[in-house]
Write a structure and sequence with these properties.
Blueprint: E1 3-6, E2 9-16, E3 20-25, H1 36-42, E4 46-51, H2 68-81, E5 87-92, H3 94-105, E6 109-115, H4 136-146, H5 149-154, H6 157-170, H7 174-181, H8 189-192, E7 200-205, H9 213-222, E8 226-231, H10 238-241, H11 243-256
Parallel strand pairs: 3-4, 3-5, 5-6, 6-7, 7-8
Antiparallel strand pairs: 1-2, 2-4
Helix pairs in contact: 1-11, 2-3
Length: 261
């Protein structure tokens, strides 16, 4: 089982593919499973790196609260462990804030692709994400807060039950979730967004109930090379709902900004 270390904290990760490295940073409380739709599509032309943040799944869960600097340092540790001097970084929600922090403090981040990320910590209302890992009914109900009603109605029952299984097996406990979300208290990209000069593609579902789409647009406007891409009718986890569409756009974006040898 591959792990990276940031001090005494062990961080579980997986890699697949061969090409430019692409690292995925999950939303608060969600395990690396949440990027499965992208992992399958990008592994091959890219070297995909998926990990469980501290407090989640198979990674260590030291007592919180955590801060953005620590979570960004965890990402740096994973990239160093896989030997990635440079990488494209994809983040969702809190993971988007972590990616932004890493982009302004690390030399490893070449591009950013963000989903459901806001410009300020108080733009995030992530409470609907959490559900006790031993309560399947609550886990199932929590999907209604992060995925659109149309998407849920169209999906086969076994897929939705599979997501519940992944959540029960790979997400954060209440303590881990609270430790992670505490990192958003000081997040304010409007104060330093101009420092993030990497190309940035900012996706946002127009029916996102957890982070207002307008905050995503504001974030993109704060970034010197930011591009805002709304996804009509999609909820917070738009990369799950619109996986085929966004995967094509991610691949095009990453190919446009291929890493130099």
């Amino acid at each position: 089982m591959p792990t990276a270390s940031n001090g005494s904290v062990s961080l579980y990760y997986e890699t697949a593919g061969d090409g430019d490295p692409v690292a995925f940073v999950p939303e608060a409380g969600l395990g690396g499973w949440s990027w499965g739709w992208q992992h399958a599509a990008l592994a091959g032309p890219f070297d995909v790196v998926v990990f469980d943040p501290r407090g989640t799944g198979r990674s260590d869960a030291p007592p919180g609260p955590y801060d953005l600097e620590t979570l960004a340092a965890d990402l740096e540790a994973v990239l160093a462990d896989v030997g990635a001097r440079n990488a494209h970084v994809v983040g969702a929600g809190l993971g988007g804030a972590v990616a932004l922090e890493a982009a302004r403090t690390s030399t490893r981040v070449e591009t950013l692709t963000l989903f459901g990320a806001g410009a300020r910590g108080d733009d995030f209302d992530l409470d609907p994400l959490y559900a006790p890992l031993d309560d399947r009914d609550a886990l199932r109900a929590s999907l209604e807060g992060v995925l659109s009603a149309d998407f849920l109605a169209e999906q086969p029952e076994d897929l939705l039950e599979g997501i519940v299984d992944w959540r029960a097996d790979g997400d954060a406990t209440r303590e881990g979730w609270e430790a992670q979300t505490a990192a958003l208290e000081s997040f304010d990209a409007t104060a330093w967004g101009l420092e993030v000069t990497q190309p940035a593609l900012v996706f946002h579902g127009t029916d996102d109930d957890l982070v207002p789409p307008e905050s995503g647009r504001t974030l993109a406007e704060q970034l010197p090379r930011g591009q805002f891409q709304p996804l009509e009718g999609a909820g917070h986890l738009s990369f799950v709902e619109r996986s085929r569409e966004v995967n094509d756009q991610i691949v095009g974006f990453l190919e446009e900004h291929a890493l130099e040898e």
